[in-house]
User: Fold these one by one.
Assistant:
Number 1:
Amino acid sequence: MSIQVENNLRNVESKEVFEQKAHYVPCKIEEDGPANVDKYFEPYVLEEDGDLTASFRGYPLDGTKMTLPEGYRAVVITEAKRPLAEDAERKFQVAGGFKDFTYWNWDKKPSKNDNLVKALDWIDISDAIHGD
Amino acid sequence: MVNSLQELQDFIKTKNNYSNFISSSEVPEVCKSEPCMLGVDEAGRGPVLGPMVYGIAYCPVSETKVLQDLGCADSKALTEEKRDNILTKMLTEESSLNNVGWIAEVISPNYISNSMYRRAKHSLNEVSMNSAISLIKRAAESGANITEVYVDTVGPPEKYQAKLQEIFPDYKITVAKKADSIYPIVSAASIVAKVTRDHALKVWQFHEGLEMSHTEFGSGYPGDPLTKKFIRDQIDNVFGYPMLVRFSWSTAELMLQEKAAACTFEEVDDQGSTKKPAKSISSFFKQNSDDGKARKRHKFFDERYLTVSNPFE
């Protein structure tokens, strides 16, 4: 299987498309596609002394802003149509990206013990092991 | 200070409808010196739409005639128009302003869902009791000389009464079913709560961009055909419902299970700690065929839920 990623946004003037807003929600949502984040979620995000709160499907969320580790960037890619054959070449399109995101926990203040924060330890460790 | 139902609506509009807020009268001077009775009642406990409102009213024990003159009687037997009239009188007439004080707490549907969906769940009863207790305290703290408290309850009155008596040892406390039809002061509290809820629904603004008025979504009770239609039709595949809806109501839960994208949160036990996935009995009998073959991953990776994966599979 080979993978080809096309970046049609390479020459896009505005940076916005690569600085989109992203939320990491503590819930598996069986859906892949656009969502009404600006209407159904963001109006309800409250900030008090740097602590964020919000609500998803009635569940209380506690959040914090996170930036990607240095040297990393997030890119969103989409596939228009997955080929039927297993070994056929697959084509992806760059749809945008983000530099920072909001990390949300369900009814629990975000801390350094959260799995995602701990998982990012690996980036430094792997660099120490495998880096130059 | 709110002087008319229009001003009540305008006041509600200035508050965000996904948090709780308080609306209240001034404390009448006479209530600061004379011993007062206080009534507690709620409106909108059952509906799947809109806030629940807790109301209290208080007046001097010696001035209960004012309540009769206002027409405070079994509030369920009063029409919406009658209730609106009584609250208008409470907001404008000298005899009432000088003797009857009131406070309402508007408990948002979002707060109700959030409480019931916490890691350690709070029941609607706890939310209700906490609101009642905080309102009684608030009346006393603002200077009212409370000596007697009458509370309407839906559950068994004995436990509730004991709990309140423990918190307020100096008050004479009476908790009773249908208290609003027995005690005029509870009826007054009930009118404050009910009218506030009705008007909160009338001025509801959807941040979700829906242009819909209360005449279209109905009373909010799950049996109301308009409310049923709203619950059936106004579904967002990812987010479920606008914040007008109490997500924790089974009517809403069941409809989302059927019609919206499936969402799974981490499972917790009743105390709110994370459940370990149960090992099935058969796993104890299974021969471990991987023995010696698969390289065991360091616990560093297990603890961080890190696995090698290919998102393009």
Number 2:
Amino acid sequence: MKISELTLFNNKAETAGIGLFLLLAVLPLVLGVLYALLYSLGLIGLISDGFTFSHWQRALSDQEFWLSILYTFYIALTTIAISITSALAASLYINKPLQKGIAGFSAYIPLAFPAIVVAFLAFQLGSQSGFFARLFFQFGIITDTAAFPEMVNDPFGIGIIAAHTFMAMPFFTLYFMSLYDQENISELSQVAQTLGASRTAQLRRIIVPIILKRAFPTLTLYTIFVMGSYEIPLILGRQTPQMMSVLVIRKLRRFSLSTIPEAYITALVFIAIILTILYLLFKSRTFSYDLDR
Amino acid sequence: MTSTVNIKSFWAKVLAATFIFPVAYLLVLSLAESWLFPELFPVSFTAERWSTLFSTNSELFNSLLLSLVVAVMVAFISTLSGFYTSKQLAYHRKRKLWMRLSYFPFVLSPVIYAAVLYYYFIELNLAGNIGGVILGHILIAYPYSVILFSGFWGNRTQRIEQLVQTLGGNRWQTYKHVFLPLAQGLLLICFFQTFLISWFEYGLTTIIGVGKVQTLTLKVFQYINEANFYNAALASSLLILPPIILLYFNKKYLFQKRW
């Protein structure tokens, strides 16, 4: 009797499939992290002087590095908070008119916008000589461009948050509306109403918690997406503070080679943050691996 | 009651106007001859930019073609390879591990991913050319494709496959007559989604392409840098055109979780 051994791959098709997956999805990430790590430790690269922690010490004592991490979280969390609030309001208050006609179609339009076009639009509309400033000027609210508040390249990232919200809010509105139907929330609300719950109590105890719980994985993944965005903070942001993605590329592209290890350290820290968030997300019970669910 | 309906309808219209306005703004800006502060509307219009787009040696038209070629190649390769791979991963006993791993490259910032991989692209002579950019885009689009298809390979599909095999069908016949027709809708969604991932990509393209592979997104950035806002609006209009066409045919092609 032949006893079959437990092997990683059962047949040639499986070997090819999983081999391709390892080659395209796993190996590049491992190699990329390894290269960045070796560079940051001074083991490879044009300015390599042998193993050293000096680049890490310099990077970690740099105020700009910590400011960048805080700024990245600030932009991502503020965007998500505003987007969730406005999307919940739209999906619960005006869900019926948003499901038909031109309004129903229009909610999909922002999904057709690449980040770079949204950044360009935000710049065109919100800058001190932009469309909104012209409106204010025509109505006599301001008399010159300098009087218009800075909304792009501003210290609070208003332009960056507005641009991201323009992309996220309609997506979440449509997503929440589909969840509302999928989870039979209207039936649950009716049961609560029969039992004497007011509309506020239904919203606070049933509707909003169910939607947010069900949407939690997507909200987390979207937060990661905003944290890693590049085009929008590049066009609408300032020299300092900068989001981590912009900081990495700026340090990589400087004429001085000495900032390259710091760029890789920032990239590694960013990857570590993302891996930690994903790890916590995978442990959450609400997470499903299938995007369709 | 009627007033509540009217108020809701009013707010829906306000929201619709907010979403439609940017499209109109881009088109107007691309057709404006001159539109300076404090003018609220352009003083005069010109169709010259749009007409020269289709003339010979138009840089923007070349970028449009290049973006189309790159996005179609990325979508085609990612969809087919993702479909094939996802089956092997879905039925493997380490499915959970593979699915977790597929999320990492997909959610990582493309520009940071490109930054840590740039060295290998140089070593493989893939930096600064179209092949490298296509491969770079596939590194993001392919894991997405794997994740999207993972839901397709459930118990039902497995039972159908076993039935086909019991009836004497080989692997090729199973794919041709069962899997591909069954997954037709999902394959189309995946194709368009991976097309859009590539079509929208800027950060990774600029790093791996070293600025030499001038896709439409790079053109928009170049025009913004040159303060040539009229051409930036034209390039932006071209960028949003294919997704809006997709939207016209089927909203589901556009509304899929990409995060």
Number 3:
Amino acid sequence: MTKHESHADNQAQPIVQFVGVEKTYDGKVNVVEALDLDIEQGEFLTFLGPSGSGKTTTLMMLAGFEEPTAGEILLNGESINRVPPFRRNMGVVFQNYALFPHMTVGENVAYSLKQRRMPKAEIAKKTLEALAMVELEAAADRHPGQLSGGQQQRVALARALVFEPSIVLMDEPLGALDKNLREQMQIEIKRLHDRLPMTFVYVTHDQTEALTMSDRVAIFNDGKIQQLDTAQNVYEAPANDFVANFVGENNRIAGQILTTDGDQCQVQIATGQTITAINVLQLQPGDRTNLSIRPERLRVSQDESGMISMTIKEVIYFGDHIRVTLVTDSTELVAKTPISLTKGMNVGGQVSVTWDVENCRALDVHDEMVA
Amino acid sequence: MTSSAPNNLKSKLARANRRKQFLAASLVAPLAVFLLVAFFFPLGKMLFLSVENTDVQRHMPQTSEAITTWDGQGIPDETVYAALVDDLRIGSENRTIALAATSLNHEIAGFRSLVMSAARRSDDLTPPFQQSLIDHNAKWGEHETWVGFQRAAAPYTLRYLLASVDLKRDVDGEIQKVPESRRVYISYLKRTLWICFVVTALCLALGFPMSYLIANASPRARSILFILVLLPFWTSLLVRTTAWVILLQSTGIVNSMLMWVGLTDGPIQLIFNRFGVYVSMVHILLPFMILPIYSVMRSIPKNHLHASASLGARPFATFRYVYLPRALPGVTAGCMLVSVLALGFYITPALVGGAGDQMLSFLIAEFTIRTANWHMAAALALLLLLTIIVVFSITSRLIRPSRGNRS
């Protein structure tokens, strides 16, 4: 996209562009494969993927700690391949925080300002502001080792934000925290992003984190972006079998395409039934497919009115909903149903399930089962 | 509930702890006993020699006994002189008087010949002995002679310790510097400290980059570099020192190379001087610098350096403010190890150094082996020990390890 076109679209130029970026460590396997990615000004973009999917490597290339083997990374339209990390002006929050243990919290936060040779009074003022932003003014004179994990995380945030970088990169910053603290920090980070005019790029393997915080999510696997879309679309309209299974809970029904009709297709599944589904990948008759249906989209009825008759194998009470595991000889499905509809559902009981066509997507067959 | 329950609990805990402590103590007991018997006891006894002073007491017992009652004014009375003549007679018969005379000579120069000649004539002396001794040699009537004798006859003396730092007591008991021509020990001490300082500095200058290289090398390269560092470390110190003699002598490889390249016409004196001492001491002590620095460098997380760079620090600033402070504990440990070991070096300077390159331990060896003056050897050993303690505490305080390494 040229500058002219971008003006014509009345759209701001992406702040960062990856153009055909590749990375290999051993010259045999690409950790990142032919990556094209635009990061929009001011967005909260999350790289989500299992370990070894190339998401952290991509982030590290953006930060300048790793050099792309091929391709180019552009910042505001200019290549930064040759720009060393200390000139990139990006805030980075590391896994395990990477706070300097020999400096106080205040010194840690002031470090970037000192490197920029700001006047002392301004350094003191900005440091205090940054610490106030994460509610840790009182801890300025303490050492990182004396703080709890959550507090250290907040110091790391303040340190990465204090010099007002245009981009903030976060590499699994909440990985070391316990669940409650992690949820609380997610909200804090999200609020910070809303308040500050900065672009956040966030790496995580935790899908809940990705869905709740991001404007857009890039799903990584095998060094490639599998899908780049809003959190809602990634969940509601997964682009392929991998994404469907990696993000959220998924019911996977193996089958074969019989006929196609526009964006729909007929799929024969193991029970012998034929099911109508959205043909997301333009599959052809005869292709193998995995159907994807989210558990909350399944409707369980206690009569035979549904599409597939099944036996209840397990009923688990979750308070706000009930999770029902249903089986036939060949298929196992999980349904999340409101409590009001589950009266009289007992293990061993016969039910039938049904769903709307638009919630059943025919996807490819991804070999590795992702937990 | 009665209050006996918590008390009961407390006593149970105490009993359990006692059992644990007893077990722990019995585990270390063999080592503690060994250290006591084989290290602390001999060490203490040896160092005690530096203040011990029994020669005169043992070989001139009667005079030593009699002089304790002298008030130190003028000269002693007849009883002391009579005791002296008795001691001289017995001593010259047993041929032990020379030992006492040598010891007395340490206190006052010329005392040896005074005593020996008196001993030879002791049978001719007649009472009153005070007069006949003074007739024999006027020095027996001098106040200074007896002050010196009284000091020499005391069971403990500071004489050797003072001598080890080129000091002595004059007749009035005032501490004074010895005449310039006889000042030796302080210059040895200064030289020892200087050699130690230079060797430590050189080891640090060579060892720090080397440690960095090893710590950041690939696993394969690391093991090779490690072998290069450790191989000399496993070789005997004597072998390594003599190897340097072979390399650096005037017909050695280094000189042959220099001449062949044409850098010099004749052989350069590379050994049996300070240069040779520095080269071989640095070579021997380098692993003691590299190993601690390396192990600390390995523990510095890479993402701390990344964090520093991302915050806008140039590579030098990252090194100065993040890497170096984290590496300092290793540098401290390395400097302490090397300097403390260097202070006590004996064989290497003795083999590859000249007369002007010997260190304190050379003097200690001289006094123990050649002149058999164990008192002086002990005094110098104490001096060396104190120097090591001082150097140790200075280095550890000078480069204080960074605090708060818990994260």
Number 4:
Amino acid sequence: MNSLWLAWLYLRRRRVAAGMMVAGVALALYLPLAAHWAADAFDEALGARAAATPIIVGARGSRFDLVLHGLYFRARSEGTVAHGEFTALRDAGYGRVIPLHVQFTAGGQPVVGTSLDYFEFRELQMARGESMALLGDCVLGANAARELNLSPGDKLKTDRKNLFDLAGDYPLQLNVTGVLSATGTADDEGVFMDVKTAWIIAGHGHGHDESESNATNSPSAKLVKTHLEITPKNMGTFHFHGDTTALPLTAILVEPMDAKGTAMVLGRYQHSGQLQALKPPVVVDEMMGMVMRVRQFLDANYALVAGAMGMLLALIVALSRRLRSREMETLFLLGCSRGTQFALQAAELLIIFAAALALALAAAWATVGWARDYLTTLAG
Amino acid sequence: MRVAIENLEFEYGPGRFRLCIPDLQIEAGARVAFVGPSGSGKTTLLRLLAGIVTPQSGTVTVGEVPVNELADAGRRAFRIRHIGFVFQDFRLVEHLDVRENILLPYRLNDALPVYDSIESQVNQQAERLGLADKLDSPVDELSQGEQQRVAICRALLPRPELLLADEPTGNLDPKNKDRILDQLFQQAESAEATLVMVTHDHALLDRFDRVIDFTKFHKPETPNE
């Protein structure tokens, strides 16, 4: 106890040098700690969401992209799956089948066209307002509502994908009907709506305004219109042209009711040239395997840094012993044994390491806490 | 505590300073001054008495204990329990304040257990030596004289039976010199301790029971030895 007290007095007097040593050691400890914790948090978040998503069906292409698209609403450019495939899967009775159409954003948040089954599937609860019921309605994830500062009853316009494409999509003004409770997942970021509303944003369906029919049919009359809005008046006029089974989905989530259902769904797309069915846990495991290899590489680097820091500390301790030789001789003259002298220096190192460890843990904890939300949506 | 030295021979190394004392007795409670030119072995003998160094031959007996025959740990424990040492160069630890410097021997040695009233003992001792308002000051902010008094305070606190002082008044002004000497003599008397002091100040010698001149003990090394 006396050794610790005397060591503390020494370090308190040499606070600048001690502080620098603490900072150096803390940095050497912080980097691997933060990296490990962040990787664990990422692994945990990704793994939990993947485990809760048995099968994703989508266009062939990158398996990682499809899984990240289905789990985190990450934009994907590789093809679509026809709505008819969704109805076929649903009618086959393998289990719960949920459409996903994720192509647009609103206020920078991903627009997720889906069905009410999605909320049940992800166990999403309404925090405020009501679920979407009509064309043009949307429900916001907790973070999306906070970011956009919107509440039930507010309006939200989708983002235009291409400002210079006059023939392309028009922003659609959405009615915010509800806000979901926070889940700490990518669902917190989403703007959810019925898939038909998403199709209207994509330009696959449209309605007719009264003013439009009365106006001259000149192109200029259409040009002044900067966005679409679905109102009680025009809602009945919205319709989709052509074969609705050909309308696109970007992915389909399937929750088979049993192992047979799983086998049937996977088998259905095994030899398909256009579509693939993936088990997200398997793909995520593969992805995390890559992360692990990066982690091992980083660990080796951290070990080198720690080794260099250790050698630097050893040098500092050796130099310190030389500089403090008179002090040590004084302690000896006052009856201090060599063992106690060693204990004193060990106590100084112990305090430095303890302070550095506490600092590193606090910093790593704060960093990972701050980054957790970011990491859970990193794939999005 | 009496001191007896018999057939003592000590040298720091071949061809270096050599001290030879055939016989020296110091009675318990005596006040003894060591005088002699620099390098005549006064400080060395204090270190031999304290067991900081050991002679090549002969015996150094303090009380009834042949100090030079004890093992390192035994000598250290004996020194801490029975001997107070005021070093010529103070030997203060600069990163500690005055209070912690005075308490340092207690912090470093289990042989000197910290007792409940130690803090009040420190305060009283500091008061006597004019250090009461300096207890929380860093020692490197003190004057030479103040540092000397801290060193004396540290040596006196455990109430040693043998007090060794190596020029304790060397850095003090006349007023403080008398004050410190009074303290040393008073402490030695109240504890019935033996006081052995190295000094170059011949004006002080009247206050001692005995003066030992070291010129006779110093034996120059011959080239053949």
